[in-house]
Amino acid sequence: MVNKCEQHRKLALAIRLIRRNLRTSIVAVHTNLSATQLRTLYHEIHGHASVSGMFPESDRLFATHQRALEASIILTAYLNCAGTDALRRIDIEALLRAHDFYIDVRRECAGLNQQAIDLTMAWILARDLRSCVVELRTCPCGIRFAVHEQQRIQVHCPVCGLPPLSAAGSPAHLSPLPASADAGSLGDRC
């Protein structure tokens, strides 16, 4: 029997995730709450039913260099927060911190013409990183960037335009983050 504190912790996590519009089927994975409970909770919080249907595919984020760069920010921050454990399971708390960091970085950028990547798509990116559909490669300039196995744009650094150091199929996402990625506010969050 699950104790009351654990039930409250799971419910509090579900509320946090639902407030951020994470799909209820994903919330169920991280909280073990029933689909009925989560749909009711979603409706109470948002005033309408939750989104249902198939998940979007992460390859759509790799149709433009701007979106590929944004996916890279999320995944690099996520890997920095979760460590190599991110390659075995999705650490929802680390993903929340990484997504918050991405939103903060995005606020500082002028001229972005697309909507921010939402938490559901960030979760899908983390899932695809774990399953090696998406990997992080390293550019000679030191930047780590995400590459999708079905990427629609040329594979090169979204910052400087150089090709990656790591070849396709190599375990590039296991290499340590460059020192510059550990600095600043991201390090404080994780």
**Largest sheet geometry:** 2 strands, antiparallel
Number of helices: 8
H/E element order: HHHHHHEEHH
Uncertain residue ranges: 167-189
First-residue to last-residue Cα separation: 32 Å
Mean pLDDT: 85
Q: Could you estimate the helical fraction of the residues in percent?
A: 40-55%
Would you write up a description of this structure?
The chain is mainly alpha-helical and 190 residues long. The chain contains 8 helices and 2 strands; from the N terminus they run ααααααββαα. The protein has helices at residues 4-19, 24-31, 35-46, 65-82, 92-107, 119-130, 179-182, 185-189, and strands spanning 134-138, 144-148. A two-stranded antiparallel ribbon has the order 1-2. It is elongated, with a radius of gyration of 17 Å. The two termini are 32 Å apart.
The gist of it:
The chain is mainly α. The chain has helices at residues 4-19, 24-31, 35-46, 65-82, 92-107, 119-130, 179-182, 185-189; strands at residues 134-138, 144-148.
List descriptors:
single chain, about 190 residues, mainly alpha, two-stranded antiparallel ribbon, 8 helices, 2 strands, disordered C terminus
Topology:
Blueprint: H1 4-19, H2 24-31, H3 35-46, H4 65-82, H5 92-107, H6 119-130, E1 134-138, E2 144-148, H7 179-182, H8 185-189
Helix pairs in contact: 1-2, 1-3, 2-3, 4-5, 4-6, 5-6
